[in-house]
Amino acid sequence: xxxxxxxxRRLVAGFPVTSDQDRVVxxxxxxxxxxxxxxxxxxxxxxxxxxxxxxxxxxxxRILLVFHGKGRFWVQPGGHLEPGDGSVADxxxxxxxxxxxxxxxxxxxxxxxxxxxxxxxxxxxxxxSHLDVGVLFVVTDEGALRVSDESEDVRWWPIDALPDEVPPxxxxxxxxxxxxxxx
Length: 183
Fold this sequence. Notes:
The chain is an alpha+beta fold. It is built from four helices and seven strands; from the N terminus they run ααββββαβββα.
């Protein structure tokens, strides 16, 4: 069993269930990550894990988003887990750095996160769906932003004026993330 597989199973088992929707999501993830590693990396099949970074400013009034080239929408930075990632949080931090240039401090062992299994369009090639673990970060130093090869733009968006071009369930994920950070 890999460290990433064990980390995902730990996160799925410890996911705070506060609604029927949370329970459905937790059970769905558990069906993929039970006794073995599950689909941790892109090569593990068309349905596999990803890590993303929901990054908020200190006031929790803005969120950092990238305009995803393949998806043609604004979304939190994130991507596939890689063999060198020690944990899901490490993968989210790496993706954040690569896609935006922003660095955030490691969140420690008990961090706030979100689970979301979403289908993908044909634009994503052989990836049919992502089992995304969204790690929540609050940054005090927003730093200079950098656009990666995977994105067309990166910017801070006011929570109360998010762009129209976002994936399904994005607004729910942001609201859920903010509720968890505030609670």
